[in-house]
């Protein structure tokens, strides 16, 4: 089930990315940094799903710890750490791509705030991606940072931020609502 859900959500993300790229290339606007980072993030998501598939098939990953079949603990740990690093990278790149989109739409202090989010989030999540590889031994003494809460806070901040400036754009009310709802999907 874990593999089906992972690949199903990736197929959905692929459809959205494909439509985005088709629309941009079809109207000959070309791709910008946010698009390239989003493509890289999509590649990391595909890699994460491939690793998840290996974990489920080889180690029965997704079951209770007692039911795992860890016949090669070193390989299992390397695969788990690789998956963690790649998953964190995918998450931060998707947020960064959206924040770069917001940079093109903001000015002044809002733009500076978006830059702060991009820089601080990439630094914090970069450390989180390295933690599995550089943690202390024994594992109980490893450096643990409360990044999931910070990452979630940035999701909500980036989801709410478009509401602050979209209302000032000359669009019909229906279009404004559609735009802010679409741009706020990161909160989901």
From TrEMBL:
It is a multi-pass membrane protein. Signal peptide: none annotated. InterPro entries: Rhodopsin_dom_fungi, SAT4-like. One of its GO terms (cellular component) is membrane. Residues 19-187 form the Rhodopsin domain. The chain crosses the membrane at residues 6-23, 35-56, 76-100, 112-135, 147-170. Its main location: membrane. Belongs to the SAT4 family. This is Rhodopsin domain-containing protein.
């Amino acid at each position: 089930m874990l593999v089906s859900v992972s690949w199903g959500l990736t197929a959905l993300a692929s459809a959205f990315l494909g439509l985005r790229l088709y629309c941009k290339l079809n109207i000959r606007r070309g791709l910008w940094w946010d698009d390239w980072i989003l493509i890289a993030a999509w590649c990391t998501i595909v890699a994460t799903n491939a690793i998840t598939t290996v974990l489920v098939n080889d180690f029965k990953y997704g079951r209770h710890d007692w039911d795992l079949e860890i016949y090669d603990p070193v390989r299992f740990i390397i695969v788990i750490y690789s998956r963690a690093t790649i998953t964190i990278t995918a998450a931060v790149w998707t947020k960064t791509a959206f924040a770069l989109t917001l940079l093109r739409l903001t000015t002044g202090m809002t733009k500076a705030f978006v830059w702060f989010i991009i820089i601080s989030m990439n630094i914090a999540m970069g450390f989180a991606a390295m933690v599995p590889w550089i943690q202390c031994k024994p594992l109980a003494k490893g450096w643990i940072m409360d990044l999931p809460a910070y990452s979630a806070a940035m999701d909500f901040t980036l989801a709410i931020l478009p509401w602050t400036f979209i209302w000032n754009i000359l669009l019909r009310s229906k279009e404004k609502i559609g735009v802010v709802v679409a741009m706020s999907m990161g909160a989901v």
